[in-house]
TrEMBL record:
UniProt-annotated catalytic positions: E268 (proton acceptor)
Localization of this protein: Cytoplasm
Source species, domain of life: Bacteria
Protein name: Probable lipid kinase YegS-like
Pfam families named among the record's database cross-references: DAGK_cat, YegS_C
Single Gene Ontology MF annotation: ATP binding
Cofactor note (record): Binds 1 Mg(2+) ion per subunit. Ca(2+) may be able to substitute.
Domain DAGKc: 1-129
Cofactor(s) required, per the database record: Mg(2+); Ca(2+)
GO terms for biological process, alphabetical: phospholipid biosynthetic process
EC number(s) per entry: 2.7.1.-
Length: 306
């Protein structure tokens, strides 16, 4: 009988999570060789991924938030491994997991070990890899300035609270973006370059993004003065905002100019000018739920004659 080997890389804050412990023990009782390693500081995720691969583990589980997921996915992609990734969402936002339909309960997330893995894309910029999204503009400032203490108390609502409390600071940034048959420049309030669909605790910037189509979704919210002046009303009434986005789907896009534009990469600040974003097709094997909204479905392929 073949023993399946998996290693859970668990964010240090979740070390005492009893639901995680129960889920791991249940998997072991089902015959899995499931080891657990806990992160303590920056660089731990990459080191633990390399140790898992050297140890012959065929499945790696990322237990934590979007940052942990990005670190593990990046390390696996850099290793060029055939091992597959399972998401155990334990963070505040869990943006990629929520968009993909991954269960938030640890035992249900581990059940995805029984679902065949499929290859998905990753994004890449300046030598860094991202699984979900690069964001810019006011929303990125909100994400960067939402305290860990507030997230502990309010959960995902912390991002909304921070955004409302800093609304008076809202101002447009200037950006110039260029890609294949695409060029846009001007003032903007928000920018999303997505392999996934949402960021910052549930803000959907790229509603049609697919993680396995070989393309990045670009969403720009322009900031003409009349939009800035009425944004509060649009937010309160919940209508009309989506129609104002400029959208494109590209294999790569370059930010040629960025003035006052703060960029986050899966929630982490991204430094540098003249940024070139590109998709890395089929770069990582991931266990996602059947019918996940983030991947091309068989019916879609048949409809397009593929």
């Amino acid at each position: 009988m073949t023993t399946h080997k998996a290693l859970l890389i668990l964010h240090g804050k979740q070390a005492l999570n009893e639901d995680v412990r129960a889920a791991v023990l249940a998997r072991r009782e089902q015959g899995w060789e499931l080891a657990v390693r806990v992160t303590w500081e920056g660089g731990d995720a990459q080191r633990l991924v390399n140790e898992a691969l050297d140890g012959g583990y065929t499945h790696i589980i990322a237990g934590g938030g979007d940052g942990t997921l990005r670190d593990v996915a990046e390390a696996m992609a850099q290793a060029g491994t055939d091992a597959s990734l399972v998401l155990m969402p334990l963070g505040t936002a869990n943006d990629f997991a929520r968009a993909a339909g991954v269960p938030l309960q640890p035992d249900q997330a581990l059940a995805l070990l029984d679902v065949p893995a499929r290859a998905i894309d990753l994004g890449r910029v300046g030598g860094q890899v991202f699984l979900n999204m690069a964001t810019g503009g006011f929303g990125s400032q909100v994400t960067a300035n939402t305290s860990e203490e507030l997230k502990k108390v309010l959960g995902g609502a912390a991002y909304l609270f921070t955004g409302l409390s800093r609304f008076s600071e809202l101002k447009a940034a200037y950006g110039e973006l260029e890609g294949p048959d695409f060029h846009w420049k001007g003032e903007l309030l928000a920018l999303g370059i997505g392999n996934g669909r949402q960021a910052g605790g549930g803000h959907v910037l790229c509603p049609d993004a697919l993680a396995d189509d070989g393309l990045l979704d670009i969403s720009i919210l322009p900031a003409p003065q009349e939009v800035v002046g009425t944004l509060r009303e649009l937010m309160n009434n919940g209508w009309g905002l989506d129609t104002m986005f400029v959208r494109a789907r590209l294999p790569w896009v370059k930010i040629k100019v960025a003035q006052g534009l703060y960029i986050n990469l899966d929630g982490e600040p991204l430094q540098g000018d003249d940024l070139h974003f590109e998709v890395v097709p089929k770069a990582l094997r991931v266990h996602l739920p059947p019918g996940s909204p983030l991947v091309v479905q068989a019916d879609d392929l048949l409809a397009h004659g593929k």
